[in-house]
Every structure is written in C-alpha cells, then in structure tokens.
Specification:
Rossmann fold, about 35% helix, 2 domains, 5-stranded parallel beta sheet, 3-stranded parallel beta sheet, alpha/beta
C-alpha cells in the first residue's frame, strides 16, 4: 500500500465493490460501515470515492462476465466488501492454498523464532481456542446436530472421521482432552518442543506438569500479528488444531499442500 498502490490504485481512483440485489441503490454499498470494515480500511488509510454494485458469482463459470464488466485496464484493483467465496472454503478449492506463499518478512521472523525458541530443533505446534467467546459459541453445538459449524467440514469430511456431528469435545476440548492428545503425539513423535498459539490461555504450566516425564519445553509468543502464529504452526513438524476454527483451517491447508502431519482435538489420534 505504501509503494505500489499510489501508482496502480491512487486515492482518486479507489472504488468499492458490493454484491447487492439488482434493484438496490448503490448508496447501500457502505464499504466502511461497522467493524471489521472501518478499522480494516482505516488501518490501510483507504477511503473510497465511489462504489459499484454487482450480481455476479465467484465461480470459474463467471470469469468472462467479470472481465467484460470490470476490465483490468479500467479496474486494476477490485476492493470487495465481503469475501469472494463461501464460508467455510469448499473442499474442492482447498488445493488453491498451494499458490499462497508466506512473505519474505514473515519467513525471516519465523526462522528467528525457531532459532531462539527451539534452537532449530523439531517442534509440535498446537492451536488452543479457549477464550470466553469461543466457549459460548460451542456451548450448545451438540443440540444443532450439524456437520457444518464454522470450519468443521475440514475434519468431519475426512474419510477417517467417525463423527456424525460436531461435538462439544471437538469444538471446545477440555484440558484433559488437550493433555491426552498432546501426550500421545509427544510419545509417538518423540518431539519435546511445543509451540502454543492461542487467543486466551496457553496452558504452559499445565502442559509442563502433565508431561514432566517427557521433559517438554513449552513456548508461547502471543505476537501482535496473528499471521506469525499461523506461520509458526504451518512450519511445525506436527500440528494439532481446533476443527471448528477458521484459524486452524488456514494452518491445516498450508500444511496439507506440503504433506505435513496434522491432527484435531477431540479425535482419537
């Protein structure tokens, strides 16, 4: 945004795009209305001089229509208000992750952390989603009797999954479940370094006490940029994540395209 955008997308040419029904006024396309939209664009110092509405789909069958309506010579940047895809990501599109690469700056920071925390030794990365908002989101999940709750298709659609629906154990695993599975992985892999990414409670003391016989070393960064946590997990030698979490899903896709092993809380690994 600092070096490239002023030439390709100057302030006087910044147009916002909204999907809206055909009979809706474009004044309803409020690119910076509410959270997270306003803080996101303000962080990038972006204001929009105009808006455009569209009714196109985002699949491969709509490519020609997009090119006809919004040719790149007139619209070098298409800034969408919402994500141009269904949530969660459909299984058939997960392979697209192979085209996503970590930036040089992110990888440099990851390598520095790997050296400082673990002396470049192997480590297990775990994602713990245990803040109050997540606890509430999972409280009644079993009553929904659903296979698709947030990012849950990433694990329930696996051929090895024996679960019919999302369970509370999968969504909000207990400390006992976390310690059980983590110990199994430590014993199986013989990896004694553990990296914890979490939105609330890293469980460092609990893990070290439970796995004292295995002499584990538990580290938690809590970086300002969550993408650093994601990259650290993506490059771990083994990963355990939360099946329902879209943050875990990012990590899992990145690992899958590299054929790196992963597991989910609540499953009998």
């Amino acid at each position: 945004m600092e070096k490239f955008a002023p030439h390709v997308w100057p302030p006087e040419s910044r147009i916002g795009f909204c999907w809206l029904p055909v009979d809706t006024s474009k004044s309803e396309c409020k690119m910076k209305d509410g959270n997270p939209f306003e803080p996101f664009w303000n962080e990038l110092h972006v204001d929009f001089v105009d808006t455009v509405t569209y009714q196109l789909n985002y699949d491969e069958y709509s490519i020609d229509q997009w090119n006809q309506l919004f040719p790149s010579d007139r619209y070098p940047v298409i800034a969408l208000k919402g994500a141009p895809a269904s949530f969660p990501m459909e299984a058939r599109y997960r392979y697209l992750q192979k085209y996503m690469n970590w930036s040089e700056n992110i990888m440099n920071e990851v390598q520095q952390h790997q050296q400082k925390l673990f002396n470049n030794e192997s480590y297990i990365g775990i994602h713990l989603r245990n803040d109050l908002d997540w606890e509430r989101a999972c409280a009644d999940v079993e009553s929904y009797k659903t296979r698709s709750y947030m990012a849950s298709p990433q694990c329930l659609d696996l051929p090895t999954s024996s679960h019919t629906f999302v369970t509370h154990k999968i969504c909000y695993p207990s400390d006992d479940e976390i310690l059980r599975l983590l110990k199994n992985v430590v014993l199986r892999t013989r990896i004694h370094n553990i990296y914890v990414a979490t939105d609330k409670r890293p469980m460092i003391k609990e893990i070290e006490e439970y796995l004292s016989a295995q002499h584990v070393h538990v580290k938690h960064l809590d970086p300002w940029l969550p993408v650093i946590d994601a990259a650290m997990l993506a490059h771990a030698n083994y990963f355990i994540g939360n099946c329902v979490s879209s943050f875990t899903a990012i990590v899992k896709r990145a690992r899958d395209v590299k054929d790196l092993p992963s597991a989910f809380w609540g499953f009998n690994n």
